[in-house]
Amino acid sequence: MSFLHIHNIHKRFGETHVLKGIDIAIEKGDFLVLVGPSGCGKSTLLNMIAGLDDISEGELRLDGERINDLHPSRRDIAMVFQSYALYPSMTVAGNIGFGLEMRKVPKAERRAAVQRAAELLQIENLLDRKPGQLSGGQRQRVAMGRALVREPQLFLFDEPLSNLDAKLRVDMRTEIKQLHQRLGTTIVYVTHDQIEAMTLATRIAVMRGGELQQLGTPQAVYDDPNNLFVAGFMGSPSMNLVTARIERLGGELVARLTAGSDEVVLPVVRDRAALEAWCDREVIVGLRPEAITDPSSANRQDGVIHEAELAVDLVEPTGADLYVVTQLGGRSINARMRPGSTLEPGQRARFAFDVSRMVAFEPDSEHRIRNPETVAPSEPAVVTSIS
Amino acid sequence: MSKPPSSRGAGARERLQHWLPKLVLSPSFVLVLFFVYGFILWTSYISFSDSGMLPDYTWAGTRQWSRLWSSWTWGIALHNIWVFGLLYIVSCTLLGLLLAILLDQRIRAEGTLRTIYLYPMALSFIVTGTAWQWFLNPGLGLERTMHSLGWESFSFNWLIDANMAIYTVVIAAVWQATGFIMAMFLAGLRGIDGEMIKAAQIDGAPTWKIYLRIVIPQLRPVFLSAIVVLAHLAIKSFDLIVAMTGGGPGNATAVPATFMYSYAFSRNEMGIAAASAVFMLAVIAALIIPYLYSELREPRS
Ligand SMILES: Nc1ncnc2c1ncn2[C@@H]1O[C@H](COP(=O)(O)OP(=O)(O)OP(=O)(O)O)[C@@H](O)[C@H]1O
Ligand SMILES: [Mg+2]
Fold first, then answer.
1. CA distances from A196 to A49, A133, A163, A169, B296 (A)
2. Pairing of strands A154-158, A77-80
3. Domains of chain B with CATH codes
4. pLDDT category, B9, cuts 50, 70, 90?
5. Do A50 and B196 touch (CB under 8 A)?
């Protein structure tokens, strides 16, 4: 039995069907990150776990116990909000201790607990201040302190870092990850930020329009997406998704892609059995920018490298990498090259494709074309891991 | 400011633009200066003069002021405004807050109810006073209705009871202003972050404690505004009292404003009336000026 079990949960606001049967199960100590475009129902799902919105249909279990109808305060859950939601009229200590006070914890014990939480978050020197006198990052810590102090079974975070500036966001991200590793608590975390999702999660749930698209480890979601949406949504810069024609060439299955006036023919090595059925038809293939490199930095040990010469359209150095834009399958695609490369737009260069990482999708249904043995990890209990 | 090099015509237009607003505003400025501030000064002077039925500019020192403070009616008026003001402010604030909290529970008929509660504020004090005078008049309103419905022993004659009459004025005034105060509190409640309420729910606070500990402390600026608005309405309540009780029975519901009016226009004691008027102005100024000062000084709440 999993620790948090979201079973076929629906949410309707009057006529609008916001969540359409969400199934997620995670274990104790998991860090589940919910990602998805704005309005897909992440906050709604979180609020339902917290008990702030009631559940239209389905079942919610925490540690084996059905908590559908339990009042938020009795669920042993703490939540950190996007706006931090600190109580402006109370001091920081009052804010952190409020939950304990409402639970009638004796004063001395309460003070000790507040002190402990403050030490953990390094905000002891702020305990007597009012929230209005704190910076964004400090407020964020107080909000986390308020959640931590009660030592709940489950933490919920709704975009807790989105109001911070970029630098602070990275720092707090690291801190949240350390906190999770140190305390081993179970966390459900909503974010818009890809990197946050990838770095923090032990499980990622990608949602769209009130439906779960994929649940899996960050690596599985990244490398082995269930459908075109997940492939395009996760990762930045995003996966290159282009049209290709599956053909048989001398007994080999290949994907033929237009490349400007030329063509690139890539051998199919992944999901070959499933792609047999797509012979002489068009599919959409996806390749991450890091699977298209210069020949010298190609990973020949783990990958299957196929080289081709293409025209360089644009060169975009980021410092750590060099993104090279070229035409493939009628689209501009990104390749990630060694930063030192002396490539010029207009020049022709050799590109190395790691075809072992190429994924293919049905053009109409946008489903992944996958070999049957790797079952799609949409069932909560089964989580495939490719890495 | 650096002016771009321009021809004479453009220079003239610029000058005109500079002077036009001042030109347009100056008549009203002069009028206000004369009729408001001029007459404040004039009234202040009168309060130190020998004026009776007509202004008399003979300097009388503080004679009118000491006559004012030894007047029995002025004592009643001060006592009344104190009782009235306190009850009015406290009841309106508490009732307004309570109604706002009840309306904030996302009930269905909220729009309608809000309008209903706000309507009395659209009536003038005179209309309110007259309506309540009819309603509470033992011969006409509530009491008579009850009698005609068969409840013969029903009696509610506060309006003509010298000890209770001031409370009928309080009732009418509270009825009129509560809706407005409610709207102020409702706006304040709507401004409170919903996530904060959710956080408090998760923290395990029951609803009444959420209001007491988290919501109401945040409404402090609204309380302040409500009290200032009500305090100056209380002091301005002249027309309500005139319409409802005319200051009676006897002097039972006299307040400084009715006192001033009757001394100036029916008792021919313009000097005393002027002294009472200046006193009222001083009290209102003492209330309003610090408030305006604090409001205008820091635009942040
Ligand atoms: N009280 C409500 N009544 C009606 N519809 C609602 C209500 N609350 C949310 N919705 C709808 O439910 C959908 C999901 O909202 P939700 O806030 O969960 O999105 P989200 O995934 O958290 O988006 P974001 O990333 O912008 O925070 C939205 O389309 C929203 O319009
Ligand atoms: Mg949201």
1. 21, 28, 14, 9, 44
2. parallel
3. 72-297 (1.10.3720.10)
4. low
5. no
Torsion angles phi and psi, residue A59, rounded to 5: -135, 140
Encode pLDDT of A125-157 as tens digits: 999 999 988 988 899 889 989 998 988 999 999
Is residue B195 within 8 angstroms of chain A, CB to CB?
yes
The response to whether residue A87 sits with its C-beta less than 6 Å from ligand 1 reads no
Q: What is the pLDDT of residues A6-24, one digit of tens each?
A: 999 999 998 899 999 999 9
Higher pLDDT pick, A72 / B144: A72
Q: 3-state class of A383 per DSSP?
A: coil
Percent of chain B with pLDDT over 90: 16
pLDDT over 90 at B292, yes or no: no
Atom of ligand 1 nearest to the CA of A46: 18
Which of A51, A89, A99 has the CB atom closest to B203's CB atom? A99
A222: nearest Cα among A236, A210, A207, A208: A236
Shortest distance, CA B301 to any CA of chain A (angstroms): 11
Peptide bond into B21 cis (omega under 30): no
The complex's ipTM?
A: 0.77
b/e per residue A283-298 (b: at least 16 CB within 10 A): bbbbbbbbbbbbeeeb
**Residue A13 beta carbon below 6 angstroms from any ligand 1 atom:** yes
Kindly report whether the global pTM for this prediction surpasses the value 0.80.
no
Could you say which DSSP state residue A291 is in? G
**A229 by DSSP, 3-state: which?**
helix
Alpha helices (H) in A205-247, listed in sequence order? 218-223, 228-233
